[in-house]
Design goal:
By secondary structure, this protein is of the alpha+beta class. It contains five helices and 17 strands. It has a single domain, classed as Alpha-Beta Complex (Fumarylacetoacetate hydrolase, domain 2), CATH 3.90.850.10. The strands form four sheets. Strands 3, 4, 5, 8, 9, 11, 12 and 15 form an eight-stranded mixed sheet that branches. It has a five-stranded mixed sheet with strand order 6-17-16-13-14, with no helix packed on it. The chain has a two-stranded antiparallel sheet with strand order 1-2. Strand 13 and strand 14 form a beta hairpin. It is globular and about 45 Å long. It holds the Pfam family FAA_hydrolase. This is Fumarylacetoacetate hydrolase family protein. Keywords: Hydrolase, Metal-binding.
Length: 229
């Protein structure tokens, strides 16, 4: 009989708005450059095709309301408010028309970014995984099931730091819709229940300093906030 000598860590879980329901997380996928105004402020091409995907480890998840230490190896921690899609069914080569059938629900997220690390990697043409996939970099709020909120495709998207509005967009500004994102991603990997997708951010990204609280909100969903210590 084989002996398990290294035990994997516990699966992180998200809170559902349904009492006593929790969602185990398998993987965290993220979409880059999904709002044209943010692409422009970062000096990119808003017509990039197809969507750009990157990942964060599931261990990077931190729930709304937490206090987190200022990350290592950065002098320029940025906020990015995002709509988060939570899947309860997987599949490969999912048709766009069927994609929403794979969604359990939606949440608000904050794709924390070490912007100086990202800029240095981009300048060298190097991968920028460590700009995105560090500890506590995926802030996720309460998940609302589709039965409660439907499939949000319009509504205000805002981020404040110490009450100052930094990002103020709308879900209608997304270049790639949720069905398009799911269908495209499923042609690259086999999606599974428990996968979550952070769908990109509008313009206005900026720094969070130690001692500040950052709050992200999307109309119709519970917010996601963290305090950096």
């Amino acid at each position: 009989m084989a002996t398990l000598i290294v035990r994997p860590p516990n699966t992180p879980t998200l809170k559902s708005s349904t009492p006593d329901h929790h969602i185990g997380v398998h993987r965290v996928f993220c979409v880059g450059q999904n709002y044209a105004d943010h692409v422009a402020e970062m000096g990119g091409d808003p017509k990039a095709d197809p969507p750009i995907f990157f990942m964060k480890p599931a261990s990077a998840i931190v729930l709304s309301g937490a206090s987190i230490p200022y990350p290592l190896a950065t002098q320029n921690l940025h906020h990015e408010v995002e709509l988060v899609v939570v899947l309860n069914r997987g599949g490969t080569d999912i048709a766009e028309a069927d994609a929403l059938d794979h969604v359990y629900g939606y949440a608000v997220g904050n794709d924390l970014t070490r912007r100086d690390v990202q800029a240095a990697a981009k300048a060298k043409g190097s991968p920028w995984d460590m700009a995105k996939g560090f500890d506590n970099s995926a802030v996720i709020g309460t998940v609302h099931p589709v039965s409660e909120v439907g499939h949000p495709n319009a509504g205000a998207v805002r981020c404040t730091v110490e009450g100052e509005v930094r990002q103020n967009g709308d879900l209608t500004q997304m270049i790639w819709s949720v069905p398009e994102i799911i269908a495209t991603l499923s042609k690259l990997v086999t999606l599974e229940a428990g996968d979550i997708i952070m769908t990109g951010t509008p313009s206005g990204v900026g720094p969070i300093s130690a001692g500040q609280t950052c709050a992200c909100d999307i109309e119709g969903l519970s917010g996601a906030s963290i305090t950096v210590t």
